[in-house]
């Protein structure tokens, strides 16, 4: 059971009833509002503890953004391997979460750039994104990943843990005392295995490439070659204030019509702090935000996503993780059904949104250059976020 002491207006609501699997809870405002929540208390109670039971609790909070049920477009008519409405250059409109027929006729999903001609229909269980869901506001941070590592068993951490101090990513120590000097920065070096394991542990689920486009674009009509902030202008963050601290931020605002991102592999060779460009007075372009307020959907680190090109991706049903990973002899892997797993040779994943090392074209919302990305090893520019 979860209750909260409401001392703010509007009061908080604990939506534990919405999580029927019993994995975590959602704390939200009861109505429209803005600003920080201060001096409020949430109490969690175990209803039926066993005789002589002993519990060791840690509470982990992840800031999420609610994405409402709504129609949205896939593709922008310009990016590489962009999704199209049949064999045209027009975007494809998603109006429900039913199965989507692949084909060259109007009203069918397609990609008219070989070799990504979408080999099959998208089944109804695949979470395209029309229905509502929650998504992480920020990319997985180095602090969040370290906290994850320290809660695992020794054999699980042997698979998911590593020590690194390169490309602005820092993890030191040994299990169960991993540390980082940059907890607020986005986490790089996440393999697909690492990404899935973190999400399974956190009772979240992998993002799909179609949901990624909705999160960035919202219900708006696509702009050719657009980035997450809705225009085709992009400005590189090449000057940083208070580098390495929890207030790390860009020193220069983008010009009118352009949004800001960490890309281009020239000055900042690694990820920046999550939300580095946002301030109390910044607008969507100045903060580099997506339509619903999610940050760094363009640049910083690439976003792991389930793809719609391979059968293993299309077989994904959006189940949430159960908080548990596999144990020995193959410890430390996600074990949720229908998640594309390289362990079985079923790839089914892609990367979206560009990273600090990417060029401008690769960073576009609808760019699918890596439609069937098959590298499973850790790379400094790989990260991501989960949803539920």
What does this structure look like?
By secondary structure, the chain is of the alpha+beta class. Helix content is 11%, strand content 17%. The strands form ten sheets. Strands 19-18-20 form a three-stranded mixed beta sheet. A two-stranded antiparallel ribbon has the order 1-4. A two-stranded antiparallel ribbon has the order 2-3. It is globular. It folds into two domains: 1-57, no CATH class; 63-388, paralog of FGE (formylglycine-generating enzyme) (Alpha-Beta Complex). The longest helix has 10 residues, at 142-151. It has helices spanning 142-151, 154-160, 192-201, 209-217, 284-287, 311-314; strands at residues 2-5, 12-14, 27-29, 41-44, 64-67, 72-74, 84-85, 92-94, 109-110, 133-136, 164-166, 169-171, 205-206, 233-236, 240-241, 249-250, 258-261, 302-306, 349-352, 382-383, 386-387.
Largest sheet composition: 3 strands, mixed
Poorly predicted spans: 1-10
- CATH fold call of the largest domain: paralog of FGE (formylglycine-generating enzyme)
Helix count from the secondary structure assignment: 6
Number of strands: 21
List key phrases describing it.
388 residues, alpha+beta, paralog of FGE (formylglycine-generating enzyme), 2 domains, 3-stranded mixed β-sheet, two-stranded antiparallel sheet, 21 strands, 11% helix, disordered N terminus
């Amino acid at each position: 059971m979860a209750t909260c002491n409401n001392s703010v207006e509007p009061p908080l609501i604990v939506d534990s009833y919405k999580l029927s699997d019993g994995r975590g809870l959602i704390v939200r405002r009861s109505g429209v509002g803005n600003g920080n929540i201060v001096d409020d208390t949430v109490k969690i109670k175990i209803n039926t503890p066993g005789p002589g039971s002993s519990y060791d609790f840690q509470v982990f909070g992840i800031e999420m953004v609610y994405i409402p049920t709504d129609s949205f477009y896939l593709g922008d008519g310009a990016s590489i391997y962009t999704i199209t409405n049949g064999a045209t250059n027009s975007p494809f409109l998603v109006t429900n979460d039913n199965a989507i027929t692949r084909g060259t006729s109007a009203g069918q999903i397609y990609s008219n750039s070989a070799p990504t001609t979408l080999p099959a229909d998208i089944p109804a269980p695949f979470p395209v994104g029309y229905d509502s869901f929650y998504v992480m506001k920020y990319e997985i941070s180095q602090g969040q990943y370290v906290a994850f590592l320290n809660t695992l068993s020794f054999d699980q951490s042997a698979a998911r843990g590593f020590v690194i101090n390169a490309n602005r990513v820092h993890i030191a120590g040994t299990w169960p005392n991993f540390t980082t000097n940059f907890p607020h920065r986005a986490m790089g070096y996440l393999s697909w295995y690492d990404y899935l394991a973190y999400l399974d542990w956190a009772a979240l689920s992998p993002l799909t490439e179609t949901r990624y486009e909705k999160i960035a674009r919202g219900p708006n009509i696509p702009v050719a070659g657009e980035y997450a902030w809705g225009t085709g202008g992009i400005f590189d963050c090449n000057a940083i204030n208070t580098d390495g601290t929890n207030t790390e931020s860009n020193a220069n605002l983008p010009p009118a019509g352009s949004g800001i991102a960490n890309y281009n592999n020239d000055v900042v060779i690694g990820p920046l702090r999550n939300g580095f460009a946002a301030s109390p007075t910044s607008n969507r372009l100045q903060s580099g935000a997506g339509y619903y307020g999610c940050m760094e959907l363009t640049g910083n680190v690439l976003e792991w996503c389930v793809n719609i090109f391979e059968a293993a991706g299309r077989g994904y049903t959006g189940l949430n993780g159960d908080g548990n990973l596999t144990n020995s002899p193959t410890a430390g892997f996600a074990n949720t059904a229908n998640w594309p797993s390289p362990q079985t040779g079923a790839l089914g994943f892609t990367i979206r949104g560009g990273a600090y090392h990417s060029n401008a074209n690769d960073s576009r919302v609808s760019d699918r250059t890596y439609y069937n990305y098959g590298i499973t090893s850790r790379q400094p520019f790989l990260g991501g976020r989960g949803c539920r």
